[in-house]
Design brief:
heterodimer; A: alpha/beta; Rossmann fold; 8 helices; 9 strands; about 20% strand; B: alpha/beta; 4-stranded parallel β-sheet
Chain lengths: ~220, ~140
């Protein structure tokens, strides 16, 4: 899922201070799961904004809303009337949701309230970690299901480097396991250590961001 | 922010609530302006409850939960304390000073201490440097 964090309140306030009516819209999908932009976080942020504006002696009307999936236009249609009657829309979705609102409602002023951070998974309650960089050419089959592009601090496809010690990464030994140790352990466990004898050629990054903004067209689904 | 005299107490019913009931049985009332909200467990506290209390005009909020190892839900008191820490950070971010939110562990037998705690917090005046930062998110 997409993992995000709430922006500092001061930054959000900078975009809504002096604005008459603000529509704060969350998203009940990824950012709700990572506790950044779901219904609850919308309520907390709205309460904080009201308190902050009041403490500055300012008036501000903050309306709370939440849609099921802000990155798909059909879910946002219900927001049409509310957007028309507010001066600013503050989106608590990921960057995709923010841009979907801005494209769908071209006259609306839409600001982000989150910093979209990575594609990852919840490791345990309150902890999320990155798992996929979206490189466009998955190599997980070669590395026992551990992505060295995402999880190795140096994105090495032929690791480990000299900074691996006791299974930890030199970049942050306390918090980052060495991805190549994980690859080795996993391949050993599933009886595929021989895969490590293969030398990976330089990666073709054209399927990633180096090829410009990406788009998928499924001809069988388009009329 | 113009601070209100109103104070909200969010209390776990198993500890603080029992102490409050004991106070009532002794015919002792809470100070004027103190509103008591009973929580089924400290673990049911949410930072949003605290923010809402301030939003609705409370000038200070006190959270009361069980002592360590005394929670019927095992860790409800620890969660309550965590929620208070989170709420204090959120309040300070919004320009409401953290001293306006207080957390205390209480046992059901502490009825005699309960009233002085509440009265003390209701009357508490912070040092000048703390009040000077109010309203600057």
């Amino acid at each position: 899922m997409i993992v995000a964090e709430r922006k500092p309140l001061a930054e959000i306030l900078g975009n809504v201070r002096g604005v008459g009516r603000v529509l704060l819209v969350g998203c009940n999908t990824c950012v709700a799961i990572c506790l950044a932009g779901g219904e609850k976080e919308v309520a907390v942020t709205a309460a904080q904004l009201r308190l902050a504006l009041r403490s500055e002696g300012l008036e501000g009307c903050i309306t709370e809303g939440c849609v099921e999936r802000q990155c798909e236009e059909e879910f946002n249609e219900e927001l049409g009337d509310a957007i028309a009657t507010h001066d600013v829309v503050l989106s608590m979705a990921c960057g995709v949701g923010v841009q979907t609102l801005a494209e769908q409602f071209p006259d609306a002023i839409v600001y982000p309230a989150l910093n979209t951070t990575f594609m990852g998974r919840p490791e345990e309650r309150g902890i999320w970690s990155e798992r996929c960089l979206g490189c466009g050419n998955c190599v997980l089959d070669k590395f026992g299901g551990v992505c060295p592009i995402t999880r190795c601090s140096k994105n090495l496809l032929n690791g480990p480097c000299g900074g691996s010690a006791n299974g930890r990464c030199e970049v942050d030994p306390e918090n980052i396991p060495c991805a190549w140790q994980l690859v080795y352990d996993r391949l050993e466990r599933i009886g595929q250590l021989g895969r490590l004898m293969e030398v990976e050629p330089p990666k073709d990054w054209s399927t990633s961001r180096h090829g410009g903004p990406r788009k998928i067209v499924r001809e069988d689904m388009v009329l | 922010m113009v601070a209100s005299d109103r104070m909200v107490v969010l209390g776990c019913d198993h500890s603080a609530g029992a102490a409050l009931d004991e106070l009532a049985a002794q015919g002792r009332a809470l100070p004027a302006g103190v509103e008591w909200v009973r929580l089924p467990c400290g673990g049911g506290l949410d930072e949003l409850h605290i923010l809402r209390a301030f939003e609705s005009g409370a000038g200070r909020v006190m959270v009361l939960a069980c002592n360590d190892s005394a929670c019927r839900s095992v860790q409800g008191n620890r969660w309550a304390e965590k929620r208070v820490q989170t709420a204090r950070r959120l309040l300070e971010e919004a320009g409401v000073p953290g001293w306006r939110l207080e957390f205390k562990a209480v046992s059901p037998t502490q009825a005699m201490e309960l009233l002085p705690w509440i009265e003390g917090f209701a009357a508490f005046e912070p040092a000048a440097e703390e009040t000077s930062q109010e309203g600057t998110p």
